[in-house]
Amino acid sequence: MNPLSEIRARFSTTLSGMVDDSDNLLSMIRPAGDSEFGDYQANCAMPLGKQLGRSPREIASEICETVQLDGLCQKIEIAGPGFINLTIDDDWLKSGLTAALADDRLGVDRVSKPKTFVIDYSSPNVAKPMHVGHVRSTFIGDAISKVLRFVGHTAISDNHLGDWGTQFGMIIYGYKHFLDEAAYRQEPVAELGRLYKYVRKLMDYHAAVKRVPELEASLDELKRKQADLESTDSPGDKKAEKQLKKQLRQLKTKIEDQAEAVAGLKAKILEVDGDPDLVKDALAHPNINQNAQLETAALHEGDATNQGLWEEFLPLCRQDMQKIYDRLDIKFDYELGESFYHSELANVVSDLTDKGFTKESDGAICVFLDNHNAPMIIQKRDGAYLYSTTDLATIKYRMEKWNADACLYVVDHRQSEHFEKLFDVARLWGFDEVELAHVAFGTVMGPDGKPYKTRSGDTVGLSGLLDEAESRALEIATSQNPELTEERHREIANVIGIGGLKYADLSHNRGSDYEFNYEKMLALRGNTATYLQYSYARVQGILRRTEADVDSIRANPGEFLFENEVERQLGLKLIRFGEALDEVLVEYKPNVLCNYLFELSQLFAQFFDKCSVKDANSEDLKQSRLQLCDLTARTIRRGLELLGIGVLDKM
Ligand code: ARG
């Protein structure tokens, strides 16, 4: 039982006697911002006062008179215009801690109404090397699945691999024209990756050659406009003057953006022009863009050669990806890629059409939606199906197979428009009971404030990133504990290197971009995995030094004693673990759990400074402190485990 849900439950009885819908009011009961005023604060009297046309202070005292907080709160106070400050009863807290101590779940209840969640995460496009963007989805999705399961929901994880898209046409084209057979025999996936990049370069080249003159012409036009505006006589009146300035500013940004785009395209052209092999191939393959697309179309239409190549490539690529998942200790319940739904796509289109939801536009089949200007296209005029069509088939499958209550899509924020439309079409189609949520996340940035890239300009490959994190962690492990064996150093490096990487990602609010930085990620201080792992190891050190037997501590608990204020604060924080997990699931934000664990570790550090275990002035106090230590370590370990991160007994 966590205090917040207990308080809300008790307020619920009182508030439902005063208004019809009290949910919103209950959500206004929150942990207190300042512990001086209490542990929790109920701010519901103000809106309620407004609603009922009475003074909030009067309402607050009415609530306080009726709400049953006996045994739960030891102090209830009204402050200011009608805030209700609540202090948790020490005996309640102590008995909660005693129960948590004996409980493998640390006193966290299972939800009363378990639901079935499908979590779509990681979902990289196979055959393109995985990059740093894919880790965000992977880490966030894995953490959310673990938290859901821990609190008692069913979470089905599904890696919706992009195994059917245009990249296969590109690789097939590359394979047919540019294959290095010896390299393919030796390291097939690396060679496929090379082919993908090679074809990409040639395609970009031709696209750029076509696009640059168009862009340059429009750039000239913009510059002409700019010159015109600049030479206009001053309009004299202030408003028009301002208008003109604004127009010029906007024009200037537009010109800069376009000039940058032209420069980018020219760089791509130059790259090819500067390499005799590339130039030769570019000239020999003027229609590579269309032809690569035709290879994809042939694959989708069941062409035997292309189908054969796809069947040859896919397992190779999957094995390669699996290596990364193994290193990250990520497992999926299902990996139903886009290709799995291939035979269902025609049915999706015909069913939506039969139900009258589609319209033809320019030969394409579309679903028009009220709140979007552009429709969702579900079949192109050449007959090809799209990403959206597959996603619709996927929703249908997930509903029919698992009867999901919720489907979460942990995908880059740049796809939000896709998901908005997808969810609208799905609801229109009849899937209107299921919660559909785009759990979006921001971009991983480099130190230059731009999306994280290597010096060569490629997005950073994932395996190189993991190598680097682990090798830096190995350096730290070796220098801190030179006496340990090399095997042990590697073990430590894996736990803190991979853990640090995951935590750096998870501890940022998923909506924001964040800067990738190895030093910060592995720092011993601050909100890092290393700091939490270190706190855990510190407790293990105390337990070792005092020769404490944790089994007997848990089996024969003594009373928790709050001799020092920080002991009570630590106890309260520990009992709030379940609250943090509930909060993670409100908006599917793992960083809430990170913050909780960080604050817990900070409190533990204060406790460690002020409250000696070994020199406690009585056996009872020593026992109580050992209990707090044990609960802290177990909460950190469990919390990190839910984030997919390990701990070490010694660091
Ligand atoms: N493969 C896609 C990409 O890499 C992400 C897929 C996300 N899941 C989905 N059901 N659309 O961009």
- Tell me what the CATH architecture of the domain at 462-642 is: Orthogonal Bundle
Shape: globular
CATH topology of the domain at 462-642: Isoleucyl-tRNA Synthetase, Domain 1
Q: How large a portion of the residues is in β-strands, by DSSP E?
A: 5-15%
Mean pLDDT: 94
State the helical fraction: 55-70%
- Parts with pLDDT < 50 across at least 5 consecutive residues: none
Number-wise, the strands total: 13
Quaternary structure classification: single chain
Structural class: alpha/beta
Q: What is the CATH C-level name of the domain at 462-642?
A: Mainly Alpha
Could you say which small molecules are bound to this protein? arginine
CATH homologous superfamily descriptor of the domain at 462-642: Isoleucyl-tRNA Synthetase, Domain 1
Strands side by side in the biggest sheet: 1-2-4-3
* Count, helices: 25
Distance between the termini: 33 Å
The major β-sheet equals: 4 strands, antiparallel
- Rg value: 30 Å
Protein model, in words:
There is one protein chain. The chain has 651 residues and is α/β, with parallel strands linked by helices. The strands form 4 sheets. It has a 4-stranded antiparallel beta sheet. β5, α6 and β6 form a beta-alpha-beta unit. It contains 25 helices and 13 strands. It starts with a helix and ends in a 9-residue tail after the last helix. Among the domains are: 86 residues, Gyrase A, domain 2 (2-Layer Sandwich); 132 residues; 181 residues, Isoleucyl-tRNA Synthetase, Domain 1 (Orthogonal Bundle). The radius of gyration is 30 Å and the shape is globular. Bound molecules: arginine. The site of arginine (ARG) has 10 residues, from α15 and β10.
